[in-house]
Amino acid sequence: MRRVEINMREADESDYGWAYLEPYLSKQGEKKRPVYQALEQIFREHEMYKAIVDNLSSMHKDLSNQLEKIQKEVHFTLLRSGDAEKSARTLLHLWNSYNFDNDVTNYLPMSELVTPPMEKAMNEVGKYYKELAAKKRSRSESLLTASDDSTLSNTEKILQEKESINLSDGNEVKETFSDWIS
User: Which domain holds residue 44?
Assistant: First the structure.
């Protein structure tokens, strides 16, 4: 262990002198923590945050490379530059694909990110197709009943024709079938 004398600014002079170190000194309950332990903890935290910043900068670099690839691969018409909703969904899909490729588990749900105009359009389209299905159903039902009516009317006509046969004399029938009766 080395012995070092450190001069620190007071709390009224700087926020990063004694004022910054003091909360780390009082972390062990009643007795004060040694200054070297507090400094070691601050150095560990600094190293951890530095690693996070490095990770974020490397992620930023990866994202810029990915964006360059996307710009080369995807033509601007595929992003449908005039349709913000489709563009946002396409980019969200690409972002989720990137996260999936890099084993990131925080995905952005596509169902929650629907703009009000898109939601209105989806409702209108759904309503249109429901009405269309109902119209088709009613048309097919009316065709079935009309065909049933036409078959009924045909059978009624045939029955009426059969009933209209005049069996005025029972003797004629007996004569026709006389050789059978004997």
Answer: 9-105
Residue 14 lies in a domain: yes
- For residue 36, is it within any domain? yes
**How many domains does the chain contain in total?**
1
Are 21 and 8 in contact, with CB atoms under 8 Å apart? yes
Q: Please indicate, yes or no, if residue 23 is contained in any of the structural domains.
A: yes
Q: Element (H or E) spanning 81, and its range? A: none
From residue 57, alpha-carbon distances to 9, 50, 103 in Å are 33, 10, 18
Contact 121, 129 (CB under 8 A): no
CA proximity to 83, closest of 109, 118, 124: 118
Distance CA(39)–CA(26), nearest Å, equals: 13
Residue 71 lies inside a defined structural domain of this protein: yes
Contact between residue 96 and residue 108 where contact means Cβ atoms under 8 Å apart = yes
pLDDT of the chain along its 182 residues, tens only? 788 888 888 888 888 888 888 888 876 667 788 888 889 999 999 999 999 999 999 999 988 888 888 777 666 655 555 566 677 777 777 777 777 777 777 666 666 666 777 778 888 888 999 998 888 888 877 776 666 555 656 666 666 666 555 545 556 656 665 666 55
